[in-house]
Design a protein that fits this description.
The complex is a heterodimer of chains A (506) and B (490). Chain A has 506 residues and is mainly alpha-helical. Chain A is built from 20 helices and three strands. Chain B contains 20 helices and two strands. The chains are: A mainly alpha (506), B mainly alpha (490).
Chain lengths: 506, 490
């Protein structure tokens, strides 16, 4: 396989409201959801309609973006000289596309899940969910750091009601932990953005970076560390990860879409933006930040995998697994190598598809059996074969085995490590596949090869949920077989890499 | 047009005298006149702001006596901006006050409206006057009416007001003493005139004493740490509508007086480079930011929490003034506006809760999110803005203050601004948790509680929505108005 980075042409921007519409759809839907709180069917219709419309709008931008023309819209000035500006470039579009596609499945799944459990405060839940998706689109399409920061903070706040949804003491304390980590990180990010403004006088993202190396290595490194803290907390980078396992107290669809796709990926996406569009990959290497990131992310991969093994609670195990996989992406985008970048970016989508499937399965098991611990799942494969089949597909993918999508991203990550001469990295990357298998396969073995008196008859979760988890598992599989066949995820990633590393003018 | 500077305080003063007469006929007239007077002065102020921005400052000689002999009123961008903030927020609170005052002090409706208008007249007088002694007169008018208004509250109100009276009188004497020194040294009381004569007197001890006395006096009125001791009791024990009127604007007007002294009277070179006044203000303000936040976390009474939060937020304004660079002062001025909206909204929310439930304790707020959805939506907007979550207004004042701190290269200030945001998050999210997520022990406790009547709800929600609107449009305010004010610092 080649990385496809040799494609290179001059890109241009043109005015289009599409990025703005993508952001606004779910925000407006949130209003309708609140208004129709007394009519659950109508309320859920808004969610579904918004999810479908959002995906349509986002995917409609793919052909033009791939042809090198980026939709851009500049709204009102936020502070003198800096506007709220949205632009759909390949990097942002691939993130927005995967988040909006998976929101469709999550919406159906949510409805099944919330109704099956008879959850309270469903209006607040669906409204917050919609706002989170708006913020995610804003993060994906932000054309400058201030816009990015605004949506980043909105996402932090909009997720909070979902974390404390249970309103139990444990949920409230998880919420506090969540805010403590993310608001602190938000402060670091605010400082980093402020310093960037003071140093460079500009905040607009530019492929290949806009901070000049003449600023001085120490200053740049300090600034980089601030950015790393700012986006690292959302990305679950150790030692800033511990809010994520606690946040698993939230309803499972929240863990699935937000704590595996939107929120945490906003962190790694932010990292990619900062490296590729603020500092520039070469500059990051020059100031010695790569070594720092490699050490932190490499350590995170190994530690998180080990910690995952120690968890008996299924969702917590998946959360630690997420922490590890986010570090893959950070690692890939920290290397100034096309293959590393490509692997990292593609992993944003593949990991999203695989991890959301696993969470969906965990939620389906919980809805059907009320069980949350792995040790109680002996023989569950007999009762819920479809769910556990999807679980198996996603597990294989996370372990990096073909033909699931995870194989492709890992392949490029390894190639990137070799290309950039960071051979030490192989020591983290190669065993981590085994570790992944080590914490996921035992679940499958329990499910399929152990017998249990409890699970004898076929009984799946509500159809809405099963359909959703089968779809995402299929999506994960297709990403491995036809990486470009569905929605051009592969092309988008490689276009993004090309723009960053070859300095294609935006 | 040229009468605008004087029209703003005169309208308010006139309604203050009209209220007892009309209120004698009918109690409701008092409210109507107060509201009309407040709105008229807000219109004059806003009109003044537009005129001043397009045509330059308006000067008005009181009684036709030319300065420096006579008293001069000046509407420049700074005073027009401040007058607009004060009269606008004041009018919204007046609109809110009717039901609240009827409930809390039904026998004193007429005198309270008369005093409230006198207070607003005093505050707007401080803003428009260009005469140092006349400023003292208005300061005393505002203070005396404030003492009386505060004393009306619950049983602890009079004690709190008396304590403020003593401290406020000391501040008044300090100020007038300082102005006396200045008058002996320069032979003038007109601000512009004094400013012209000062550069030759930079080394004069009398002038140094004047600066010290004036800034201590204004610092006390502004509740700048450690001169804040009067504030928590006064804000907590005054009637809720009065707390809503005083908390958002009175300390801001003192902050305005400090900015006026800095920009017009003594000028930045003197206070920044010759005397270390601005850096003293900045350091005290930074201490106050942290102190106020920590004390706010320790409170269980909602009003006291808001009061300590005010001390912290006033610190932000003080810090911006003390930085004495364009970005810092922009942040301070923007925060005067933003905080006036946020704090007014929060005190009005406190009043709404009190009106419906009689409660002040945060621990009793469980379940109010469902019972009073609109009130609590306004609260959420203001609380997030206080924490500094974009795109709410509070984020942007912090943004400019942060840039000002970076510009000054003072990392302690930068760290203070960021750290205090987190402390603010602690005490506001604690309330949000109670309101939205806490389980009521007795589910039926607030069975009949709902949002307050429209007259109270509307101003609260308008202020809450205003917090978001100000955030989104802050760039217009900064480049259209504040840029003109901070220009002398460049």
């Amino acid at each position: 396989m080649t990385t496809g980075v040799e494609m290179s042409r001059v890109a241009e921007s043109y005015f289009s409201l599409a990025p703005l519409v993508a952001v606004l759809i779910s925000l407006i839907a949130a209003g309708f959801i609140l208004l129709s709180r007394r009519r659950p069917n109508l309320r859920e219709t808004w969610t579904i309609v918004a999810a479908l419309c959002k995906f349509t709008v986002v995917s409609s931008m793919v052909p033009t973006v791939l042809s090198g023309r980026y939709p851009e819209v500049t709204l009102l000035e936020m502070t003198p000289g800096i506007s709220l500006a949205l632009k759909a470039d390949p990097l942002g579009l691939s993130f927005a596309l995967s988040a909006s596609l998976l929101w469709i499945f999550t919406s159906f799944y949510s409805i099944g899940y919330m109704r099956a459990l008879g959850e309270h405060h469903q209006t607040r839940y669906f409204a917050s969910f919609a706002i989170c998706l708006s913020a995610t689109m804003g993060i994906a399409f932000a054309a400058n750091l201030l816009t990015f920061l605004i949506f980043y903070e909105v996402l932090t706040i909009a997720t909070y009601p979902l974390v404390i949804h249970n309103e139990s003491a444990a949920a409230i304390s998880a919420g506090r932990k969540y805010l403590a980590f993310l608001l602190t990180a938000g402060g670091a990010l605010l400082l980093a953005v402020g310093l960037t403004q003071a140093i460079a006088g500009s905040l607009s993202f530019s492929a290949g970076g806009f901070l000049s190396p003449s600023i001085g290595q120490t200053k740049l490194l300090a600034l980089f560390v601030l950015f790393l803290i700012g986006v690292g907390a959302k990305a679950g980078l150790m030692p800033l990860h511990s809010w994520l396992p606690s946040a698993m107290i939230a309803p499972t669809p929240v863990s699935a879409l937000l704590h595996a796709v939107a929120v945490v990926k906003a962190g790694v996406f932010g990292f990619a933006r900062v490296v590729g569009f603020v500092f520039g990959p070469d500059s990051v290497t020059q100031i010695g930040a790569t070594t720092l990131v490699v050490a932190v992310a490499g350590g995170t991969i190994i530690l998180a995998s080990l910690l995952a093994m120690a968890q008996d609670n299924l969702k917590r195990r998946l959360a630690y697994s997420t922490v590890g996989h986010l570090a893959y992406i950070i690692l890939g985008t920290a290397l100034a190598s096309p293959a590393g970048w490509l692997g990292g970016l593609f992993h944003i989508t593949t990991h999203a598809a695989m991890k959301i499937t696993l969470f969906f399965c965990a939620g389906a098991i919980y809805v059907k059996t009320g069980r949350e611990n792995i040790s109680e799942l002996d023989g569950i494969g007999k009762q819920m074969p479809l769910t556990m089949a999807a679980f198996a597909v996603a597990s294989l993918g996370l372990a990096g085995l073909p033909p699931v999508g995870g194989f492709i991203s890992k392949w490029f990550l390894v190639q990137g490590a070799v290309e950039s001469g960071q051979l030490m990295l192989l020591a983290a990357l190669l065993p981590s596949g085994l570790l992944n298998a080590g914490y996921l396969f035992p679940i499958l073995i329990r499910a399929f090869f152990k017998s249990s008196k409890d699970f004898t008859n076929f009984a799946e979760a509500p159809p809405l949920m099963v359909m959703a988890l089968l779809s995402t598992a299929t999506f994960a599989l297709l990403l491995g077989i036809y990486p470009d066949g569905i929605f051009y995820f592969y092309s988008l990633s490689s276009e993004a890499v090309a723009s960053v590393l070859k300095g294609v003018a935006p | 047009m040229s009468h605008l500077p004087v029209l703003i305080p005169i309208t308010l003063l006139f309604s203050a005298f009209l209220i007892p007469l009309a209120g004698y006929l009918r109690r409701d007239f008092a409210f109507a006149i107060a509201l009309i007077g407040g709105c008229l002065s807000a219109v004059f102020s806003a009109l003044g702001l537009l005129v001043v921005i397009s045509e330059g400052e308006l000067r008005y000689d009181l009684g036709g006596w030319a300065p420096p002999i006579g008293i001069e009123y000046v509407l420049d961008v700074l005073s027009a901006f401040m007058a607009t903030v004060v009269t606008l927020v004041g009018s919204l609170v007046l609109l809110y006050s009717r039901r609240s005052i009827l409930q809390e002090a039904p026998e004193r409706v007429v005198p309270m409206y008369a005093l409230a208008m006198l207070l607003l007249a005093g505050l707007s007088g401080i803003i428009v006057t260009a005469d140092l002694f006349n400023l003292f007169v208005f300061l005393e008018i505002a203070s005396l009416s404030a003492y009386a208004l505060m004393a009306v509250g619950d049983e602890r109100g009079p004690v709190a007001a008396f304590r403020y009276l003593i401290l406020g009188s000391i501040a008044g004497s300090f100020y007038v003493l300082g102005v006396g020194f200045l008058y002996f040294s320069t032979g003038s009381l007109n601000m512009a005139d004094v400013a012209q004569r000062l550069p030759d007197l930079y080394q004069s001890r009398a002038v140094v004493a004047a600066v010290t006395l004036i800034f201590i006096a204004l610092g006390l009125k502004m509740a700048l740490f450690p001169l804040h001791l009067w504030l928590p009791d006064v804000y907590s024990y005054a009637p809720s509508a009065i707390a809503g009127l005083i908390a958002p604007i009175m300390t801001k007007v003192a902050a305005y007086a400090i900015i006026r002294m800095l920009l017009t009277v003594f000028q930045p070179p003197y206070l920044r480079d010759v005397l270390p006044v601005t850096s003293v203000i900045a350091w005290l303000a930074a201490a106050g930011i942290v102190y106020g936040s920590i004390m706010a976390i320790a409170q269980s009474d909602f009003r006291r929490m808001l009061a300590y939060s005010s001390i912290s937020q006033i610190g932000y304004i003080g810090l911006g003034i003390g930085l004495a660079n364009p970005l810092g002062l922009t942040g301070a001025l923007l925060h005067i506006l933003n905080h006036a909206f946020m704090k007014a909204c929060l005190f009005l929310v406190a009043g709404c809760i009190r009106f419906r439930t009689g409660q002040w304790e945060v621990s009793q707020f469980a379940g109010l999110g469902r019972k009073m959805p609109w009130t609590m939506a306004a609260f959420t907007a203001s609380a997030l803005s206080m924490v500094g979550i974009p795109p709410a207004a509070g984020f942007f004042s912090k943004w400019y203050l942060l840039l000002g701190g970076i510009d000054a290269g003072n990392w302690i200030f930068v760290a203070t601004i960021l750290f205090s945001s987190l402390l603010t998050a602690v005490y506001f999210f604690r309330v949000l948790e109670q309101v939205y997520a806490a389980q009521t022990k007795d589910g039926s406790a607030y069975k009949n509680v709902s949002d307050p009547p429209a007259g109270m709800l509307l101003p609260t929600v308008v202020l809450g929505a205003g917090v978001l609107l100000l955030g989104v449009t802050n760039s217009l305010i900064v480049s259209g108005v504040l840029r003109l004010i901070v220009a002398p610092l460049q």
